[in-house]
Write a structure and sequence with these properties.
The protein has 414 residues and is an all-alpha fold. Helix content is 82%, strand content 0%. It is built from 16 helices and no strands.
Length: 414
C-alpha cells in the first residue's frame, strides 16, 4: 500500500458526527476547566502562602481516583459510557458553581476548597475512564489515534486560553467569575452528549461480580507486556514529572515575581507547545502509535524541568514551558492510544480506569512531595528534584523494556 493511500488528513476523525459533537462540546468545557484550575491554584496560594497546602489541595482532587477508578472501569464496561459522562459532567458543574458562590459571598475558606476538590475527584474518577474509552466508540479503529491526538489538541488548546482568561479574570474581576465561567462551560458538553447517537454495544462476555471483573482487568494488564510497560511509565512519570500545577504558580510568584496574569501566560505557553505536539501526532496518525515516543517524550520533559533550577527571565521560562508542553503531549497521547488500541472492547473501560488511576491517582503523593520540597528548597529546587526523579524512573523502565525486547527476540530466534 502506498504512502499516499496510507496518509490521512490530520482532521480525519472529525468527519464522524459523534466525535465531532463530542470534540466541539469538550473544547468549550475544557477552556472553563483550565480557567478554574489556574484560578484555584492562585487563590489557594494567595489565601495560604504555602506551596505545601497548595499541593494538598491538588492531592485532595486526585485521592478519590485511587479508590474509585477500578470500580469506575467495571461500570464503564457494563453500562453506557455516555450516561456515566452526563452524570459526572453535571457533578463537576455543580462543584464549580458552589465554589463561585462561596468566593462571591466572601465566605470561602481553605477547608471548603479541600472538600470541593474531593467532590471534583469523585466525579473525575468516573469521568476519565468513561470519556477516554468512549473515544473508541465514536470513530472506526483506524481513526482512533487521530481522534486521541485531536482530543489532546483541544485539551492543550484550552490550556493556552483557559489560564490566560483565568489570570485576567482573577486580576480584574476576582476568582468568583473564573469559577462561574467554568460552571457555564459544562453546559456545552452536556448538550453535545445529548445530541450524540451512539450504537448500543452489548458485551458478549458474561458479567461477573464486581470484584471478579476488577481482578480480570488487573490480570489482563499484568499479563500483557505492552499494557504493563505503558502503565508503569504512566505511574512513575505522573508521580514525579507532572506536578506542574504545584510548581508553576510558585515559580511565577516567587522567582519571577509575577501576578496571576503572568502565571496564566506561563501556562499558556505550555499549552501552545502541547497543541503543536498534538497536531504533529495527528498528522502522523496513519503510522500508528510509536512506542519510543513514550520514553523520548517523558525523558525530555524531565530534562527540561531540571533546567528550571537555572536563573530565568520570563522569556526563557516561557520557552522551557513551551517545550515541556510539546514533549508532554508526545508522551501522554502515545500512552493513551497504545492502551486503547491494545485492549479488547470488553476490557477497555477497565484498562483505561487503570490508566486514569495511575495517571491521576499517584498525583496526590507527587503533589505533596513536590509541595514539600518546594516549600523548603524553593521553586527551582522543586523543579530539579521532580525532573531528576522522573528521569531516573524513565531510564529504569526503558532498560526493562529493552531487556524484555531482547528476551522476546531470543524466543523468536533473532
Amino acid at each position: 500500500m502506498s504512502d499516499a493511500i496510507q496518509r490521512k488528513s490530520p482532521f480525519s476523525a472529525l468527519k464522524h458526527p459523534n466525535f465531532r459533537l463530542f470534540w466541539t462540546g469538550r473544547a468549550v468545557s475544557l477552556i472553563g476547566s483550565w480557567v478554574q484550575r489556574a484560578s484555584q491554584s492562585w487563590l489557594v496560594l494567595q489565601m495560604t502562602d504555602s506551596p505545601l497546602k497548595l499541593g494538598l489541595v491538588n492531592a485532595a482532587r486526585f485521592l478519590p481516583v485511587i479508590f474509585l477508578s477500578l470500580f469506575a472501569g467495571v461500570l464503564c464496561d457494563r453500562i453506557s459510557k455516555k450516561k456515566v459522562i452526563l452524570f459526572t459532567q453535571t457533578g463537576l458543574m455543580l462543584q464549580a458553581l458552589i465554589l463561585s458562590v462561596l468566593v462571591f459571598t466572601n465566605t470561602v475558606q481553605y477547608w471548603h476548597i479541600l472538600l470541593l476538590s474531593i467532590m471534583d475527584g469523585i466525579c473525575t474518577a468516573f469521568d476519565n475512564p468513561a470519556r477516554q474509552s468512549m473515544i473508541s466508540d465514536t470513530v472506526p479503529r483506524d481513526d482512533v489515534l487521530n481522534a486521541i491526538s485531536l482530543n489532546s489538541a483541544i485539551v492543550n488548546g484550552a490550556r493556552i486560553i483557559g489560564p490566560a482568561i483565568g489570570g485576567f479574570a482573577m486580576d480584574v474581576f476576582g476568582a468568583a467569575l473564573a469559577f462561574f465561567i467554568n460552571a457555564i462551560s459544562f453546559l456545552f458538553v452536556i448538550v453535545a452528549l445529548l445530541m450524540m447517537k451512539l450504537p448500543a454495544k452489548l458485551s458478549s462476555v458474561k458479567k461477573k461480580g464486581t470484584m471478579s471483573e476488577i481482578k480480570e482487568g488487573l490480570q489482563y494488564a499484568l499479563k500483557t507486556p505492552t499494557i504493563r510497560t505503558v502503565l508503569g511509565m504512566v505511574s512513575f512519570t505522573s508521580m514525579f514529572a507532572l506536578n506542574l500545577s504545584v510548581l508553576v504558580p510558585v515559580f511565577a510568584a516567587q522567582v519571577l515575581n509575577m501576578s496571576a496574569t503572568g502565571y496564566g501566560l506561563l501556562m499558556s505557553f505550555m499549552g501552545a507547545g502541547a497543541v503543536l505536539g498534538a497536531f504533529s501526532l495527528a498528522s502522523m496518525s496513519h503510522r500508528g502509535p510509536q512506542t519510543m515516543l513514550i520514553y523520548i517524550g517523558a525523558a525530555a520533559v524531565c530534562i527540561l524541568e531540571m533546567t528550571m533550577i537555572l536563573p530565568h527571565t520570563f522569556a526563557s521560562a516561557a520557552m522551557v514551558m513551551f517545550f515541556i508542553g510539546l514533549m508532554q503531549i508526545t508522551y501522554s497521547a502515545t500512552c493513551n492510544s497504545t492502551l486503547q488500541l491494545t485492549a479488547p472492547d470488553h476490557l477497555r473501560g477497565r484498562v483505561m480506569s487503570l490508566y486514569s488511576m495511575l495517571n491521576g491517582g499517584v498525583t496526590p503523593f507527587g503533589n505533596t512531595i513536590a509541595g514539600a520540597v518546594t516549600e523548603f528548597g524553593g521553586a527551582g529546587v522543586g523543579f530539579f528534584f521532580c525532573g531528576f526523579m522522573g528521569l531516573c524512573s524513565t531510564a529504569f523502565l526503558f532498560n526493562q523494556h529493552r531487556r524484555h525486547s531482547r528476551v522476546e527476540d531470543q524466543k523468536l530466534g533473532f
